[in-house]
């Protein structure tokens, strides 16, 4: 199952003469969790609505699982979770899932299974108007899973409202990606969640694709390679020694921690040289701060 | 394969129609209108029952006693059924935008035209059911309070003509709901068009009385309310002795015309409004939740 789950090709869109998207172009690999990032107003929601054919682009094309997004049948393969899901409040949870099943041609017998997965089996016959925000979010997740979709698109899903629900749904999404090869594409501002769940990122800025790739590439590109070294015997002599190693580009220390900026190929050489400087290394890891990399990327993108 | 798709398409339209029926019934405004309509039906027959012993009424009762079902069947169509129709249809699409629920359907394997058709038919089914309830009530009350009713052979034609007439304002409400995407604006605009076309018709008829210039009558007949309110009256006029009742059931001016003219106006308005709604829905972007 290679290839792309989603191809967004050179999308342009204006509203009332104002250019909102200008050549948004990226691809989402199958069977991966890809997050869609960008500051407010960058055009994330507009892009997602174009992908879902709710908004028509001025030019460009969207291909989902090898078929145009204008082919309505492809929506049997898509599950969608809105930011703050707006579901018909006069229906019960079970009625909503029944409508969704009928639309997608899925088995209605599986409705209880989906309600059970999201912990709403005992609330299936309650009207949605009586649901809490967290319950509505859970119902939206259950609804998106109907018909075993191949692609899940989520627009800023604040998964659950409590940390336990967050952990549960994060693991559930990872599991369906792992076991069923589902692709998840979601927009978010929650970088800690992005870091925990996704492998690849797409960043748009000022209506243009600014970065596509995996999280490590993003960090390398905008932060460089920074190694965090924890020493059992921190001392000024060791710090000075490490700081003076020829290939060290950046150096800072705090307590027993050293943060050393180097090029990618000097990683293991650094470990050897820190030991040679007399350091007793407790931990040696690459700094993986998506938030810093993202902020740096946005700053550069804006020309600061 | 094509047949299968056709069958699937019909199923989806039915799913949306049933959803729309349920949605419209969940709206307080619609429920209040339904209750008021039923109270109105009962009140009309109770009022007639209390004047049964009035000398003048007693004189005409032998002639109209067996067609009193016409009163409750035709009285709503002069105004009430159009209000019910536009109050249901004006919220049909606009409330989906306001509540953001339109995304739920349009991110499923359903075409926009199928969705619009389902919404249109679902709301219309409710209008037909409400009117059916009113007609049933009329026949029962006139039968119980007065005498066994006759000439019911005309009922299917009259029923169909009222439903067709209701299409004009139903489609108007549907169109304004789609074009303005705000239920309150759609309701205000479409009900204003209903009332103002009625009033303008009265004024034009009045002006015609002085000028005898037939252009005023032509304009009055071309207003959306004329065909919609006159078509069932023209059909009912072939019922024996109905001429005694019909003048009291007309709200607007009584202008001469034919069934075909009235039908022509109703069909033209209905098709035009529906086409505008469809074209608008097919071509415009679906915004995020509006309110």
Mind explaining what this structure looks like?
The complex is a heterodimer of chains A (304) and B (291). With 304 residues, chain A is of the alpha/beta class. Chain A folds into two domains: 215 residues, 3-Layer(aba) Sandwich (Rossmann fold); 79 residues, YebC, transcriptional regulation domain (Alpha-Beta Plaits, 2-Layer Sandwich), CATH 3.30.70. By secondary structure, chain B is an all-alpha fold. Chain B has one domain. Chain B contains 14 helices and no strands. The termini of chain B are far apart. At the A-B interface, α2 of A face α1 and α7 of B.
Characteristic terms for this protein:
heterodimer; A: 304 residues; alpha/beta; Rossmann fold; Alpha-Beta Plaits; 2 domains; 6-stranded mixed sheet; 4-stranded antiparallel sheet; 10 helices; 14 strands; globular; B: 291 residues; mainly alpha
Chains forming the largest contact: A-B, 28 and 24 residues
Q: Provide the number of structural domains of chain B.
A: 1
The helix content of chain B, as a percent range, equals over 70%
**From N to C, what is the helix and strand string of chain B?**
HHHHHHHHHHHHHH
Please summarize what this structure is.
The complex is a heterodimer of chains A (304) and B (291). Chain A is an alpha/beta fold and 304 residues long.
């Amino acid at each position: 199952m290679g290839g792309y789950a989603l191809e967004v090709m050179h999308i342009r869109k204006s509203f009332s003469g104002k250019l909102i998207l200008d050549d948004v172009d990226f691809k989402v690999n199958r069977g991966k969790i890809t997050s869609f990032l960008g500051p407010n107003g960058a055009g994330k929601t507009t892009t997602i609505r174009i992908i879902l054919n709710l908004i028509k682009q001025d030019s460009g094309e969207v291909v989902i699982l090898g078929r145009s997004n204008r082919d309505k049948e492809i929506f049997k393969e898509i599950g969608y979770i809105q930011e703050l899901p707006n579901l018909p409040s006069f229906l019960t949870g079970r009625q909503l899932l029944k409508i969704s099943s009928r639309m997608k041609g899925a088995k209605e017998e599986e409705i209880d299974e989906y309600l059970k997965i999201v912990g709403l089996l005992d609330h299936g016959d309650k009207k949605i108007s009586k649901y809490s925000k967290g319950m509505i979010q859970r119902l939206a997740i259950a609804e998106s899973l109907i018909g075993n979709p191949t692609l899940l698109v989520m627009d800023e899903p604040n998964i659950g409202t409590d940390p336990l629900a967050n952990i549960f749904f994060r693991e559930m999404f990872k599991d369906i990606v792992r076991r069923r090869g589902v692709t998840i594409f979601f927009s978010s501002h929650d970088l800690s969640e992005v870091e925990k769940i996704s492998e690849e990122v797409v960043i748009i800025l000022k209506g243009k694709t600014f970065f596509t790739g995996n999280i490590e590439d993003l960090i390398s590109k905008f932060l460089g390679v920074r190694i965090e070294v924890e020493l059992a015997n921190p001392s000024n002599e060791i710090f000075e020694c490490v700081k003076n190693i020829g290939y060290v580009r950046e150096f800072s220390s705090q307590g027993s921690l050293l943060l050393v900026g180097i090029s990618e190929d000097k990683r293991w050489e650094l470990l050897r040289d820190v030991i040679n400087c007399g350091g007793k290394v407790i931990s040696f890891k690459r700094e993986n701060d998506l938030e810093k990399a993202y902020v740096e990327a946005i700053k550069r993108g804006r020309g600061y | 394969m094509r047949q299968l798709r056709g069958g699937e398409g019909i199923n989806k339209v039915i799913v949306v129609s049933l959803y729309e029926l349920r949605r419209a019934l969940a709206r307080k405004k619609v429920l209040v209108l339904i209750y008021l309509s039923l109270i109105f039906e009962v009140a009309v027959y109770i009022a007639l029952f209390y004047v049964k012993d009035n000398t003048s009424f007693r004189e005409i009762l032998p002639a109209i006693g067996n067609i009193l079902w016409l009163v409750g069947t035709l009285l709503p169509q002069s105004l009430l059924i159009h209000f019910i129709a536009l109050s249901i249809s004006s919220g049909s699409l606009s409330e989906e935008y306001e509540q953001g629920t339109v995304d739920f359907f349009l991110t499923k394997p359903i075409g926009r035209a199928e969705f619009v058709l389902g919404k249109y038919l679902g709301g219309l089914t409710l209008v037909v059911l409400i009117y059916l309830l009113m007609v049933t009530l009329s026949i029962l009350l006139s039968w119980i309070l007065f005498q066994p009713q006759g000439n019911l052979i005309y009922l299917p034609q009259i029923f169909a003509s009222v439903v067709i007439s209701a299409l004009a304002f139903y489609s108007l409400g549907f169109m304004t709901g789609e074009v303005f995407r705000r239920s309150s604006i759609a309701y205000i605009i479409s009900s204003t068009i209903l009332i103002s076309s009625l009033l303008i018709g009265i004024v034009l008829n009045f002006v015609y009385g002085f000028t005898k210039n037939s252009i005023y009558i032509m304009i009055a007949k071309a207003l959306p309310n004329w065909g919609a309110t006159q078509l069932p009256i023209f059909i009912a006029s072939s019922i024996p002795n109905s001429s005694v009742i019909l003048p009291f059931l007309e709200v607007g001016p009584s202008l001469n015309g034919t069934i075909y003219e009235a039908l022509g106006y109703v069909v033209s308005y209905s098709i035009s409004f529906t086409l505008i709604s469809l074209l608008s829905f097919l071509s415009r972007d679906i915004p995020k939740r509006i309110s």
